[in-house]
Each structure stands twice: as C-alpha cells, then as structure tokens.
Amino acid sequence: MNKQIKVFAPATVANVACGFDVLGFALNEPGDEVILQTTDSNEVTLSKITGDGGKLPLDVSKNTAAAVIKHYLAHIGSRQGIDIQLHKRMPLGSGLGSSAASAVAGLFAVNELLGSPLTRAELLPFAMEGERIASGAAHADNVAPALLGGFVLVRSYNPLDIVSIPFPKDLVATVVHPQIEIRTEDARSILKKSILLKDAIQQWGNIGGLIAGLIQGDYDLIKRSLQDVIIEPVRSLLIPNFDKVKQAALESGALGCSISGSGPSIFALSNSLAIAGEIASAMRKELKVIGIDCDVYISPINNVGARVLGVQQEKGENLVFTHSSYAND
Amino acid sequence: MNKQIKVFAPATVANVACGFDVLGFALNEPGDEVILQTTDSNEVTLSKITGDGGKLPLDVSKNTAAAVIKHYLAHIGSRQGIDIQLHKRMPLGSGLGSSAASAVAGLFAVNELLGSPLTRAELLPFAMEGERIASGAAHADNVAPALLGGFVLVRSYNPLDIVSIPFPKDLVATVVHPQIEIRTEDARSILKKSILLKDAIQQWGNIGGLIAGLIQGDYDLIKRSLQDVIIEPVRSLLIPNFDKVKQAALESGALGCSISGSGPSIFALSNSLAIAGEIASAMRKELKVIGIDCDVYISPINNVGARVLGVQQEKGENLVFTHSSYAND
C-alpha cells in the first residue's frame, strides 16, 4: 500500500542588502513542487522533471532533490523506496534559491512520508548538503527560509545557529528576474576576500538596524538600514542597468532594493501590494529600455515555509489537497 | 540672579563584543558630575576639577566639557557666562567613556540651565565634537548611551542615525578596570584597516543575533551572539591575562565578556546581580594572580542617561536635589 505526497517549497531571497550570507526570506511564489511516492524497491528513483527546460540531470546522484533524499534515508537508516517527480515552478539560476527549493521540497516530502521523524530544523543540515552539491558551498541563507518561512538570520555556521526574525505583516516583496544568466561561481569570484574595516562597520550598523526594524515593525528604520556598501557595488556590475532599476524602485516607494542572492534577480521591499505593483512596473520599464525582458513576482513574505499540498493514502483514491487551487495541477 | 545646576552623566561600555563602533550601553555608575553656574561675564570658565589626579587641563580650550559648552553656546547664539566645576567620579583612560561622560554632563547641564532649547538627540553632535577633541575621532558609541541611556545602536555616521535598542530589564553589567594604561591611539593603531570578508560575515551574524536577543529578551541568543572575532583577538593582546579573565567570567555565568571600548576595562553581562557579583570576584582573582589590581563596578543597565541631580535657583538658597544621596556631596 504505497503512499504519495505533494509538497511545495518556496523561492527565497538571500543576502537582503546588508545581510550577505546571513539573512534570507521566503516568498509565497514562485517555488518548486515535488511529488514523492513510496515504492516497493529499495531505490530512490527520479521519474520526471518538468519546468527545467531539460537543464537538470535525471541522474539520481547528480540531482539535488534526489541526492538529499538519499542522504536523508541513509541517515535515518531507512531502505524505503521512493520515486520523485520534480516540477520546477521557478526559474533556474535566477538568484531565487532554485536548488534550495528543490532540496527543501524533497526533504520535507520524504520526512512527511515517513511520519516526520525529524523536525524542520533538523532537516536543515541535509538541505545545506544539497546546496553543496548544487553550488559547491553549503549555504543556509536560502534553505533555512525555504524550510521555515519568514525572515531567517544565520547567526553562525559553526555551530549552525538559525534564528527566525519576526517581521511586520504588511511587508511585500517585488522581485524582477531579468532574462540574463549569471553563474553563481562568477558572482562569488568577483568578490574580494578582504574588505575595509570601515565598510564592515557600516554594514554591521545596517544589519543591526534592519533586524531591529523588522522585529519592531519600524518601516522607516528598515528603509534606512536596507543598504549594502560591500557586495552590491561589486555584483551589480554583472546586472545591466542595475542602478537605474534600483532607483526606479526607490522612487516608486520601495523601502529598499538590492540583488537577490547572487543575482541576476533584483528584489525590492515595500509595505503594500499596491506599491509593490508600482515598483514592479517601474523596474520592468528600466530593463525594457535596454531590451531585457523579465519575470516579475509580487509576494507577501511567506511565513510558512515548505508545506504539504496533498496526500494520497492509497492507490486509486482521489488526492485530498490542502490547497484546492493545486487540485487539478 | 544666577542659577546653578548639578548633572550626572554615566560611564558607558562601547563596542559590546560584536558591535565595534556601532553599539554601546550606559552604566548606573560610575560617571561624572558637573556643577554649572551662570555668571555675569560673557565667558566660559573652569574653576575646579576634582578626581582626575591633576591630569586634565584647566585650560578652557583644551578641556572637553568646557570646549563643548563653548561650542554649544556659539551654536545657539548665547553669550551667557558659565562657570564649570567638573568632578570626575570615574577613572580616566579606562575604556569606560570618561571624555564622553564629561562632555555629555557639561552639555546636558548647560542646555538645562538655558531652558532646554535642544533635545537630547540634538545635543549628540556637540558631544561627538567633544570626542574629537579628546581622541581625534568623533565617535558616538559612548556619547549616545551616556546621553540617552540604555543600549544604543549607531546605525550610521553619515547621516548620523542613532537607534535605541530595547533590552531585558534584568541585564546587569560587571566591569573590571585593571590598573594598567592603554592609550586610545595605541588601541586604534593595533587594528588592521582590512579584514577578511568571512570574519565580517561572522560578525554581522552576531550583531544581528545580539540585537534580536536584546529586543526579544532572549538571554540564550544574547549569549550565543556576544562574540567578537575581529577586534577582541587583536586588542586583547594589550590586556595581560585577558583570556583567563574572560574564561573566569564565562565560567561564573556571564552571558558574554569582552573589552570595554578600547580597554583596558573588561565587561561581562549577566542576568542577575548575584551572578554579576560572582563574575566580579572571579575576574578580579585572575588579575590578582598576575599582580594587577582593579576597580570593579556592578551595575544594571542605565536606562536614563544624563540626569539632573539638583538645581539651585538663587544664591543663598538651599540646593534642592532630586537624589538625596548627593545632597552632601
């Protein structure tokens, strides 16, 4: 009697201006869906990937979601057979945590299928392992918000210390994904290994201010603090017209605007859906001027993280979805 | 009809581990007292300094308190004559914001004498000017908490942006001041102008965690975050037996322990007066071992900042003090 589960894990914005490598937040959409099914074999198989334009490997050892599921099963000592279907509902290589969404969706799904032996927080190291497979570095600033939702501070990597940061409920993200490609490796290698102490001081003033502003719901403080004097000035060189896109966002009422993850996506935060829409139009326009198309996402901050969309207990029965909008997916 | 006012401004702990140059807090004691009296001349005079062991200049142009008062009077266009008595009730060159306490006490007093034309926040730039006179750099991380009380984040210097950070009310500071001398200039010059990006990332994780812990009253998070991987490892070389003093504090229940300002004072934070006392004994013992005496201060966080101790409206009348303990001072 095999079981099937459908899980969604959201796209995430990492770095968040002054929070390079330590802060991220989750979007309601886009994100990834996985459908996991228990099988009678002892194998992890990957039967289907959609939405990736044929770019992702079907090879179980190379696919992030499959690899983390195998790692998870070995850790808990299970020989359960699992078949994976991965439906990418978000762009790859966009700076929106695509590999994190796949890894988190897969892990959350397999953990649910097996009766939740691990907590969300305990799943985190496995998801980070997925990041290592995908990009060579076990970052937590995408996987942690994808798993837990909300704003997440990675206070420390060694030992791993993840802190959920309360935030004002009206906060909305506008994200534009320009149709250009930046490799994560390039975005990393453009950064210098050393920075000026005086710049670092500015940055920790801003991260302190941003955390205080988020917790206290002080939009003005959030606005003053959403500045990155270290990473953005370098990485923005890789994104055509970045300065004008940012300026357009700020002039449309954004609290702040910076690069999402390692780019090329650009995010802006604001405190209403209406303003978020205006920001989106203004940003899109500045990319259009130089002939670059973009995807646009407008989303409140996702306070849930990965979630179950539906479970099918026995073969042949109807799927019972927790969100009816996904029923006919 | 001349008027006299007595004002106290507290000692302060700047840097606060991971908050180099951006975070400070105020103590209840020690601190400085000034007595200001209006005079019939147009001059600012400095008639008396006590408690400085003869180290501070009586020259009005060189004394920090006198200089900032002159600067203040010029700014508001007043030719009021003022005589100053400065009573140092705290050690000089201790890393506890001695010059900040003098400047803030003087400014707060003259502003009160003249009917408070400026707010506390508006006095801040004048107090920073005092820091420039005293140490060559217009730092705000001592003067801001001395003026405003509590924990203060200097989010930005340009423009100046000072953010008061709520904190749990049980927080207590233990401060030991070893009887050795470190010049602020030496403590500055030992620092490198560049730091590793990976160290900076750790630091902004910790400052984010500390701010979140303070606001949310999460002692465990405060404890995990009170770490300085950049400044303390370098500056602690100037303080004999620092590592053992710190270890003793932590083993006695301190949430964290680091250098106060540019040293040589060492502060520890805890969440009860009883623990703070045990920490003090343990720290003192580790200094005693190598033959160094120290002053010890145990103080809840001062949430008031500079305050009026007493006002005398007319010559000959009795002083009416707001705190009777100071009446016979």
UniProtKB/TrEMBL annotation, chains A, B:
GO terms for cellular component: cytoplasm
Binding site for ATP: 91-101
Family to which this protein belongs: Belongs to the GHMP kinase family. Homoserine kinase subfamily.
General function of this protein: Catalyzes the ATP-dependent phosphorylation of L-homoserine to L-homoserine phosphate.
Domain GHMP kinase C-terminal: 211-287
EC numbers, comma separated: 2.7.1.39
Keyword Amino-acid biosynthesis: yes
Residues in GHMP kinase N-terminal domain copies: 63-150
InterPro entries given in the database record: GHMP_kinase_C_dom, GHMP_kinase_C_sf, GHMP_kinase_N_dom, GHMP_knse_ATP-bd_CS, Homoserine_kinase, Ribosomal_Su5_D2-typ_SF, Ribsml_uS5_D2-typ_fold_subgr
Enzyme class label: transferase
Annotated keywords: Amino-acid biosynthesis, ATP-binding, Cytoplasm, Kinase, Nucleotide-binding, Threonine biosynthesis, Transferase
Name by which UniProt lists this protein: Homoserine kinase
GO biological process, alphabetically ordered: threonine biosynthetic process
Catalytic activity: L-homoserine + ATP = O-phospho-L-homoserine + ADP + H(+)
Gene (UniProt): thrB
GO molecular function, one term: ATP binding
Pathway listed: Amino-acid biosynthesis; L-threonine biosynthesis; L-threonine from L-aspartate: step 4/5
Organism in which the protein naturally occurs: Thermoflexibacter ruber
Source organism superkingdom: Bacteria
